[in-house]
Amino acid sequence: MPQITLIEAVTMALAYEMTADPSVFVLGEDVGVNGGVFRATVGLQQRFGPERVIDTPLDETTIAGLTVGASAMGMRPIAEAQFEGFIYPMIEQIACHAGRLRNRTRGRMSCPMVIRAPWGGGIRAPEHHSEANEALFAHMPGLRVVIPSSPSRAYGLLLAAIRDPDPVIFFEPKRIYRQYKEEVADDGEALPLDVCFVLRDGSDVTLVTWGAHVKETLEVADALALEGISAEVIDVATVKPLDFDTIHESVRKTGRCVIIHEATRSGGIGAEIAAQLAEKAMFDLRAPVERVTGYDIPMPLFRQEMKQLPSVPRILAAVKRVLAFS
């Protein structure tokens, strides 16, 4: 079984599904000849031809429109937005058509499509290249929003997203595209959408996160273990629809919760999780819910990026505050 990076797992999943299903095709800016900005589609045009790996004009609105139209006609397109900050011209097609088609036609039609985008900060890029805008899409009815956090989850969740009968926004945390490797079998086994993954069992505090910050959160859990503190770590993975039951079950056990995400604080997925905990788990909580997030500012440029993102010390400080509460 090969050890591969997250970006290689994306390529592997795309190739597997394109081989298995002739209705699957890829389109986007520079995805063919160049294999994509981050090389997620490298080699696919040579393998499957330019009719199935299509280099488009630099026009995100048209890419989204073609994707919606093709999926409505029974194809399974996978569109790439080069960066999540370039996805905004696609929103009219995503919100007004992709997310509404099943409801608009009373189930007679749907949009089995995926829009992939490199997501999040940490690569010291200009501002439109480093955004975490998952809450914007989670607010739109009719969409799934998926963010993998490891090579194996990227492979299994992307397969599930491509096979899903409805539109999926698939955000790939580019900070960890090549950060580490793990064994991933190219066996076509999809992972379930709409469920959280409990990465570590614990009894003292629940740590809820997704995307690249799973890494820092696991580091925090390791540091806490050295102090005799048992932290349960949950990778949300599908931020819409949210698997609140898994989070609630953990909080029933631990009584404390810290939510970590790199998106800005106001109106984020963390606020939604905290609201549901207030509504459904108030009497299970022994301390107020803490959020460790990005700040409510545009992503700073270049070297300042990492100051915007939650760090191990910030997460540890939040955990200590909920543990000290009585």
TrEMBL record:
Q: Which GO terms describe its molecular function?
A: oxidoreductase activity
The Swiss-Prot or TrEMBL record lists the needed cofactor(s) as:
thiamine diphosphate
Coiled-coil segments on the chain, per record:
none
- Is Amino-acid biosynthesis one of the keywords UniProt gives this record? no
Pinpoint the Transketolase-like pyrimidine-binding domain residues.
4-179
Q: Which UniProt keywords apply?
A: Oxidoreductase, Thiamine pyrophosphate
Q: Which Gene3D superfamilies match?
A: 3.40.50.920, 3.40.50.970
Which domain of life, per UniProt? Answer: Bacteria
**InterPro entries, per this entry?**
THDP-binding (IPR029061), Transketo_C/PFOR_II (IPR009014), Transketolase-like_Pyr-bd (IPR005475), Transketolase_C (IPR033248)
Sorted alphabetically, which Pfam families does this protein's record hold? Transket_pyr, Transketolase_C
Role summary: The branched-chain alpha-keto dehydrogenase complex catalyzes the overall conversion of alpha-keto acids to acyl-CoA and CO(2). It contains multiple copies of three enzymatic components: branched-chain alpha-keto acid decarboxylase (E1), lipoamide acyltransferase (E2) and lipoamide dehydrogenase (E3).
What this protein is called in its record is 2-oxoisovalerate dehydrogenase subunit beta
